[in-house]
């Protein structure tokens, strides 16, 4: 009998244990961050459960309201937003929350305030709910200098100030990918235990990938750099095989695949959306943070994505993220485009 294998299976690294281990490396920490993360994890478990029984519980379909982005709200969107707002406020560790679903930032009651700001998209890709495609929650965490005098300005920080970021994907399995600034780890929910178990330790994105992910339906509105890059993916001139196109249309699912298999995810600006479509605080920043922590890159077409300084909480930006070499290629094409347009 293989006792080593048996021991390996019984020594489970749960997400709570992992975060506590991280905490023990910082003797000055008081456990606030660990408590906050445990509330986010609880929110993810609740939403995972709701997503699994959405059809049975009649949670599928529209809630009849339109959110701040002008997108029709699904019932699950509304529920997920409520779950996360309540979980984050009740943690007693947050002072301000920014959600995709709420027009204004939520300032926590002074009696329940902590030192963190959480920006989140409670249910990304929710237009895919009815057809069973993977959807997810994205979040980013910042520290606020003065919790008693917090203003909207405190939220509008560059992505480089982010302390932690992650996403939870509700698909064939429920996977939570997290970085607290020292690498990226993936945890899978074991329904029999009700615990997230470490299944993808220290994720590193391949330096170059074989997949590109973009909505080609917008091709006629792209700028020359994007058009040229996609052309190179399909018809490489250096004798290498063409890249495969994979586009799910759910950012969490597309980024998750890119992180594990390599390649590049593109959501460029175009004539229809000159500022891009993805929101900076709770989509671009957290995913860029994870990509960089896994050894990849993230670029806006002008600068490193995490260097952006947003001016509004729902600001949008183009983004190109993924394998280091693939993003490097896009950067070179934009540098070339800038030269020719200034000439």
Automatic annotation (TrEMBL):
EC class: hydrolase
Task: Classify the source by domain of life.
Answer: Eukaryota
Q: Which GO terms describe its molecular function?
A: fructose 1,6-bisphosphate 1-phosphatase activity; metal ion binding
User: What residue intervals traverse the membrane?
Assistant: none
Q: Which UniProt keywords apply?
A: Carbohydrate metabolism, Cytoplasm, Hydrolase, Magnesium, Metal-binding
- Entry's Gene Ontology BP terms: fructose 1,6-bisphosphate metabolic process; fructose 6-phosphate metabolic process; fructose metabolic process; gluconeogenesis; sucrose biosynthetic process
**CDD domains assigned to the protein according to its UniProt record, in alphabetical order:** FBPase (cd00354)
- The entry's protein name is Fructose-1,6-bisphosphatase, cytosolic
